[in-house]
């Protein structure tokens, strides 16, 4: 089991994922440079946070054209587990691997703070060890995290069970006061129809050690050990 | 721009060069300078680059210590923290650009200080921003504050360096001249520190990063002048930042510096290509020859003068080993950065600038970098001190509703929760942040070790205005106390000294006195100065700011487990006060907020007492006896206790205390006597903590206990009861309300 951590120019959370895999979880990992074209040898992928290519145009809009993205699309279509956090989630939406889009926060300001998210579905490679409804305390750090999708797509996400995380109160109630960015239906994370691609705005790697205030992010990252949902 | 035909006295004066300085320039060259050379001298000998007014005073600061690897004189200071690691840190000001264009002024301040850190081979891991604005009840100050915070957020978040701390203070004195100071800290292997010096004749000089434009020309000169009504027209001299390119530079340079090809490296900050080339040559005792025709440009028709003086952001200058050019270029090209060989290291110590075949400047590098004018400017004690020192505070009315005063103070700009600001900054990147913004000091874990770092920035302009010597001392003491409250031993400081025009004897006296106070305090605490920045000319329309020295203190936790926060942890804990309250209302926040007075003498600081209090606090924390530790600062003991109740993640623990002291009740509650720390400890730890305090010679009194829904304070003439929920509400929403007012 080896995790590939994608690095675009302007990515900055890759080191934090590497730290958690290396020092906390003891998982094998490697960086994948965006100019590469092969993902041979990797069993799961992480698209970390940052400002890929500066995000000057629209978040994630340029990164989807990086050479490695063709291989990422193939990897995902083949059922490989792919997790996008923060900027990684934005890139996966731009690349069409996840539905919807991430717009400017409702406050029009960047937000770095702790939030709580409720685990809505446990049948993804990254939530399979979570309890249904489990509330996770994980920080966010973004300026563009307001999840949006047109009504018909939202309806499909609901009926397919593709909303994986919702912002919630510590007690687990999805509510306006717990929604840090104005996301529709308090959506914090979604998965693909095939369920193997998951994107979320919070940073699980920042919540993997007691020293940092929470270990809840480990639920997602430890689940990677299980590999793909079905043998590929 | 077109080159003027000849150098006239008017042209010399326009460059801020005095007739005496011009005579020295002619003596150094043995001839008249040409226009390009005049420009080069004007920026290198500006106050901003040459420290010509401050140098004689800065020399009195202590800069040596057992853990100091690099003191002032390089891009940043370097301190050994053991385990084969060193920390690299520095603070700088970007006051003038931020007044003219708040967003970009602040953003490029962040970019500049980050470059100073990775230039030394260190990965930048933390930023702190001490900020000063005019009252937020004024629209213009809100505009500046909003722009500055957005600029720090926009640049710092995108470039990927977390902002873990800082300060925000408001006062009328900063309305026409905000202060934007930025501190950055990086970490590097101890043996892999890089210096900004050119060495090895024949080694190539490489330019890397953004293309050069006309932006920022005369930026260093602008920072060396006061503002008048036309200042807004200077907007074009403020540069525009590109955090993405800076991120590429960080990664590319650190990747390059992991190898053995880099000989010397410096960023192009103030005075751009001029400063980086002549300083590197001067430090290495060599010459440098560069060809401007090879410099990447983004505008056409730029003359040599403009290229040499441009302050376009995100550019670096490197000297690399001859023969390694190809390998070096490969790394820069991997990161899609423009990099060009523009010259070489030469013998003879000359900065020689060509434009193709044409020689456009030839100046001894050492003369530019080290032989700038040094002034012993006249000094005079300001007359206002006669009035403020004699102020009779004993006749002020004592408020009959101290509970209302306490609530008002908690909601005031300087005390209210700064979360509306710091939640706009990524403060968690790199998974090091053990104590987030909102406590006395930010605490970061040092990965790969058991250690931690505590960081704090402090400076009280009002204290320094009322007594510059005590103000300098108090700034260092408070910064050290904050770091100690975080569980760390203070190691060293950087600083930013923000003052008015040094050409006025009263300002120069304030400066000299503040530096003297800082020097005494730094010697007493064993915290040398590793570098910093002087920002003079903080004046608008002849009105100088309060003299504002800001201290950036770094402390070391031998064990990250000692990290301590300021808020109470559990009901039943006993509350102790280290130190003593005296009747000292002068210069206090209470006096300002409730009596609209900024007068009196600031609290006296006894350095021995301060050391005793800090020593006792640190030993008690390290012995595992302390639940919370909080410095008593703005708002005095009452505010410190209220903050200990209300500022934690929950913020719901009350307390009942007896305050001891025969004095005015408002002085007992809100006076700002120095050298005081509020501790909470488990009941079983009280005697052990008192024994430690006794051994250090620090007064230690039991004030009361944590618990209940209210903060209850009793004492001679004092009977206050306020619900913690009300305290928290005021503190939590105070700043937000001010920022949104209109």
What's the short story on this structure?
The complex is a heterodimer of chains A (232) and B (742). Chain A has helices at 14-25, 68-77, 87-94, 151-160, 218-222; strands at 2-7, 28-33, 44-47, 82-85, 101-103, 111-119, 135-142, 146-148, 163-168, 187-191, 197-200. Chain A is of the alpha/beta class and 232 residues long.
Description:
The complex is a heterodimer of chains A (232) and B (742). Chain A has 232 residues and is of the alpha/beta class. Chain A has a single domain, classed as Class I glutamine amidotransferase (GATase) domain (Rossmann fold, 3-Layer(aba) Sandwich), CATH 3.40.50.880. Chain A is 19% helix and 25% strand. Chain A has helices at 14-25, 68-77, 87-94, 151-160, 218-222, and strands at 2-7, 28-33, 44-47, 82-85, 101-103, 111-119, 135-142, 146-148, 163-168, 187-191, 197-200. The radius of gyration of chain A is 16 Å and the shape is globular. The two termini of chain A are 13 Å apart. Chain B has 742 residues and is an alpha+beta fold. Helices cover 36% and strands 24% of the residues of chain B. Chain B has 26 helices and 28 strands. In chain B, helix 20 links the parallel strand 17 (489-498) and strand 18 (529-535). In chain B, helix 8 (139-159) packs parallel to helix 10 (243-257). Chain B is globular and about 85 Å long. Chain B starts with 8 loop residues before the first helix and ends with a helix. The chains are: A alpha/beta (232), B alpha+beta (742). The A-B interface holds A 9-10, 12-13, 15-16, 19-20, 23, 35, 50-51, 53-56, 109-113, 139, 141, 143, 203, 205-206, 208-209, 211-213 and B 150, 153-154, 157-158, 160, 242-245, 247-248, 251, 334-336, 422-431, 433-434, 436, 445, 447, 560.
């Amino acid at each position: 089991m080896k995790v590939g951590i994608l690095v675009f120019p302007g990515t900055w959370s890759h080191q934090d994922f590497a730290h958690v895999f290396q020092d906390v979880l003891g998982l094998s990992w490697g960086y994948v440079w965006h100019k590469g074209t092969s993902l041979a040898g990797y069993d799961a992928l992480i698209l970390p946070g940052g400002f890929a290519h500066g995000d000057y145009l629209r978040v994630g809009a340029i990164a989807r054209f990086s050479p490695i993205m063709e291989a990422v699309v193939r990897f995902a279509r083949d059922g490989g587990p792919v997790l996008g956090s923060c900027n990684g989630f934005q890139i996966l939406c731009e690349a069409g691997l996840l539905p919807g889009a991430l717009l400017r926060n409702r406050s029009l300001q960047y937000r770095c703070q702790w939030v709580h998210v409720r685990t809505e579905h446990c049948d993804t490679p990254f939530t399979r060890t979570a309890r249904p409804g489990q509330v996770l305390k994980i920080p966010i750090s973004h300026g563009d995290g307001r999840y949006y999708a047109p009504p018909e797509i939202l309806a499909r996400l609901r009926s397919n069970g593709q909303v994986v995380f919702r912002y919630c109160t510590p007690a687990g109630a999805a509510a306006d006061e717990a929604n840090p960015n104005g996301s529709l239906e308090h959506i914090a994370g979604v998965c693909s129809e095939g369920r193997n691609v998951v994107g979320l705005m919070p940073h699980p790697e920042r919540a993997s050690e007691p020293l940092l205030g929470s270990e809840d992010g480990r639920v997602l990252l430890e689940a990677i050990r299980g590999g793909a949902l079905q043998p590929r | 721009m077109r080159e003027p035909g000849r150098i006239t006295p008017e042209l010399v004066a326009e460059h801020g060069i005095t007739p005496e300085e011009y005579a020295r320039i002619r003596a150094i060259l043995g001839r008249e300078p040409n226009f390009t050379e005049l420009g080069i001298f004007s920026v290198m000998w500006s106050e901003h680059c040459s420290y010509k007014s401050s140098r004689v005073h800065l020399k009195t600061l202590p800069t040596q210590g057992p853990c100091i690897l690099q003191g002032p004189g390089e891009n940043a200071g370097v301190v050994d923290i053991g385990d084969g690691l060193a920390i690299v840190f520095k603070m700088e000001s970007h006051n003038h650009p931020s007044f003219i264009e708040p967003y970009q002024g602040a953003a490029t301040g962040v970019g500049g200080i980050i470059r100073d850190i990775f230039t030394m081979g260190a990965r930048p891991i933390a930023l702190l921003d001490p900020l000063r604005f005019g009252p937020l009840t004024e629209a213009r100050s809100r505009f500046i504050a909003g722009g500055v915070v957005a600029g720090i957020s926009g640049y710092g978040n995108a470039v990927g360096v977390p902002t873990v701390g800082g300060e925000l203070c408001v006062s009328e004195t900063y309305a026409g001249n905000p202060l934007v100071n930025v501190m950055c800290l990086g970490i590097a292997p101890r043996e892999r520190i890089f210096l900004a010096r050119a060495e090895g004749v024949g080694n190539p000089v490489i330019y890397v990063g953004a293309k050069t434009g006309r932006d920022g020309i005369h930026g260093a000169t602008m920072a060396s002048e006061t503002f008048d009504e036309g200042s807004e027209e200077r907007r074009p001299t403020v540069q525009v930042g590109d955090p993405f390119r800076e991120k590429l530079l960080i990664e590319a340079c650190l990747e390059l510096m992991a190898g053995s090809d880099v000989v010397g490296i410096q960023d192009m900050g103030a005075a751009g290509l001029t400063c980086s080339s002549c300083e590197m040559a001067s430090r290495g005792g060599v010459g440098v020859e560069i060809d401007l025709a090879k410099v990447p440009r983004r505008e056409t028709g730029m003359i040599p003068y403009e290229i040499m003086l441009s302050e376009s952001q995100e550019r670096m200058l490197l000297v690399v080993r001859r023969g390694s050019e190809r390998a070096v270029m490969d790394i820069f090209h991997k990161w899609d950065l423009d990099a060009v060989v523009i010259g070489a290291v030469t013998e003879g110590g000359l900065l020689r600038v060509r434009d193709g075949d044409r020689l456009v400047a030839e100046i001894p590098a050492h003369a530019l970098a080290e032989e700038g004018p040094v002034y012993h400017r006249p000094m005079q004690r300001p007359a206002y001190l006669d009035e403020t020192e004699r102020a009779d505070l004993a006749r002020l009315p004592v408020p009959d509703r101290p509970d209302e005063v306490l609530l008002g103070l908690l909601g005031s700009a300087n005390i209210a929760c700064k979360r509306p600001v710091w939640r706009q900054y990524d403060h968690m990147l790199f998974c090091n942040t053990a104590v987030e913004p909102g406590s006395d000091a930010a605490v970061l874990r040092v990965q790969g070790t058991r250690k931690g770092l505590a960081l704090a920035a402090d400076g009280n302009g009002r204290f320094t205005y009322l007594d510059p010597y005590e103000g300098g001392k108090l700034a260092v003491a408070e910064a050290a106390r904050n770091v100690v409250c975080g569980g760390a031993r203070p190691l060293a400081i950087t600083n930013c000294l923000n003052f008015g025009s040094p050409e006025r004897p009263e300002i120069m006296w304030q400066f000299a006195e503040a530096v003297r106070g800082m020097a005494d305090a730094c010697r007493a605490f064993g915290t040398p100065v590793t570098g910093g920045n002087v920002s003079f000319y903080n004046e608008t329309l002849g009105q100088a700011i309060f003299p504002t020295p800001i201290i950036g203190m770094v402390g070391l936790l031998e064990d990250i487990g000692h990290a301590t926060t300021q808020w109470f942890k559990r009901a039943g804990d006993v509350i102790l006060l280290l130190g003593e309250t005296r009747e000292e209302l002068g210069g206090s926040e209470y006096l300002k907020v409730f009596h609209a007075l900024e007068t009196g003498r600031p609290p006296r600081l006894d350095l021995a007492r301060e050391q005793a209090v800090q020593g006792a606090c640190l030993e008690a924390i390290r012995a595992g006896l302390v639940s919370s530790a909080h410095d008593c600062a703005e708002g005095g003991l009452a505010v410190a206790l209220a903050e200990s109740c209300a500022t934690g993640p929950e913020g719901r623990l009350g307390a009942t205390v007896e305050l001891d002291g025969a004095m005015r009740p408002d002085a007992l509650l809100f006076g700002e006597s120095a050298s005081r720390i509020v501790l909470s400890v488990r009941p079983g730890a009280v005697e052990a903590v008192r024994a430690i305090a006794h051994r250090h010679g620090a007064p230690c009194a039991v004030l009361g206990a944590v618990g209940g829904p209210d903060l209850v304070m009793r004492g001679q003439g004092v009977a206050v009861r306020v619900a913690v929920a009300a305290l928290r509400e005021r503190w939590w929403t105070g700043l937000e309300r001010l920022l949104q007012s209109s």
